[in-house]
Amino acid sequence: MSARVRAPELRGRGWLNTGGRDLKLSDLRGKIVVADFWTFCCVNCLHVLDELRPLEEKYADVLVVVGVHSPKFEHEKDPDALAAAVERYGVHHPVLDDPELDMWQQYAARAWPTLAVIDPEGYVVATMAGEGHAEGLARLVDELVATHEAKGTLHRGDGPYVPPAEPETTLRFPGKAVLLDGGNLLVSDSARHSLVELAPDGETLVRRIGSGDRGRADGPADAAAFSEPQGLCRLPAHVAEVAGYDLVAADTINHLLRGVKLGTGEVVTVAGTGRQWRSTVDDHAHDALSVDLSSPWDLAWYDDKVIVAMAGIHQLWWFDPIRRTAGMYAGTTVEALRDGPQAEAWMAQPSGLSVSTDGARLWVADSETSAVRYVENGVLATAVGQGLFDFGHVDGPAERALLQHPLGVCALPDGSVLVADTYNGAVRRFDPGTGQVSTVADGLAEPSDVVLTADGGVLVVESAAHRLTRLAPGALSAAGASTVDGPRHRTERKPTDVAAGEVTLDIVFTPAPGQKLDETYGPSTRLVVSASPPELLLEGAGTGTVLSRRLVVDGAVAGGVLQVTAQAATCDADVEHAACHLTRQDWGVPVRVVEGAAARLPLVLRGLDA
Fold first, then answer.
1. Could you give the CA distance from residue 382 to residue 327 in angstroms, rounded to a whole number?
2. What residues pair up with 600 in beta bridges, in sequence order?
3. CA 531 to chain centre
4. Are residues 285 and 318 in contact, defined by beta-carbon separation less than 8 angstroms?
5. For the segment 528-537, what is each residue's pLDDT rounded down to a tens digit?
6. The pTM is what?
7. How does strand 32-38 pair with strand 296-302?
């Protein structure tokens, strides 16, 4: 029997959603506590927030979720930005601000997100890396409730969450916007779960499409429901006529694409099942309503299709409104920066799309690599950006310029592209002709999209200011731009020391209670390994079906990042109609090659490891 581990005390810079009260673990004694280590840039963390919502509702009198915000980007260390994110994403539990990752290290977290389960007596009983743990958590909570109710150590009752005051603004954390005929604008009002039509001034409310409550429902404008919608794409007139709707909306948290009839505001689901994608990569066309999606974040009409920035799995997908089919367009699901043919390239949470005036180039805001990239002639290339952990606010030649988590792009008629450089609070411009990056506006509150108006003006979706902002005339001219040589940052997660030569990578997988590995349709597990730089691994890169891999690490390389993707198929054990489940996790593990270091690297796929 392993020794019980007492949960480290919760300490940080401050608390949110507690009414100003600082919580201690002793205040939560008698409750089951799930500490959710997250960062608000991370789409996988947003998935977990959504997975936890029904558990928080079901177990409201015995379960307390505590969000521990351990940031990746510099902007995420700003307490005001964190407070905005907590509201933006509907976080209805206490949140501890952990700006220096002290709690992250105390709880030995190694990936965003990580969950730590603490029993009513204050002991850590499980840790879980990644997403997809809702069912396993529910079973574990049931076991803990039974055990501690019998012991008399479970205390039922309300938790410590105190909701903040409800703000009054027309928009609340708008995401994306598109221009309509006549100059009106349609805006995804993400935190109010609806689409809003504004007059050409960008302020006057014309109508709202959607009830404003989080949900999933088709129907007329006042009854339809979305969950944190983002990207919007108008269809060409001839396509809209056949499809039966005029615009496609990315219903991000519902993992759906929705069709909107602009004349009436009627909403219909056109792609997605509502389940989050956790499958294998293929290049087939699928019936659009039978395929799972994963956090579609933006949309653009390109290559005679709707291209989808599938942020949740680091890919681009396509959707054909006429054939009503969908499939993968670019990316392998590996979260990193690698150029090349579309099917082999790597991306990291693509969140913004825009098409060049001549239709030849699709610009992509690849947010987690802080990069601007583009698709052209079947190849994905990088214009600005250096990697998954390099960011800052630096203008000048593109090869040395830095951005910080951009969410939007807007192609201009002269061939250049504007970038909503979200975490720098700026609009940047990249000119392919000169290879230069400049800053055209700053001091903005988390700009998430840029829209070119019919008169040549530029509107910025200033998300954290809850408004659209018009750039000053002349901002796009050479005289209006500035050159910033700001700070350079690199996220320094503590690297894992590994030995040069042979290293065994072991993926530790324990099925959730009541489940077993499922080999009905072939091998139940899959492991994909790569490295950045590739020279780090002399042997061991590639795909296999065994959750253990012999790696050979090059001692001449000081270190790098191991990219590991593992998945396991399980089914319910000993039941007549067993449900099937797929657990998947992606890791980017910083490693340092050290003589005499460990020759084994264990990672937990489903962390039901006490």
1. 23
2. 504
3. 22
4. no
5. 898 888 899 9
6. 0.84
7. unpaired
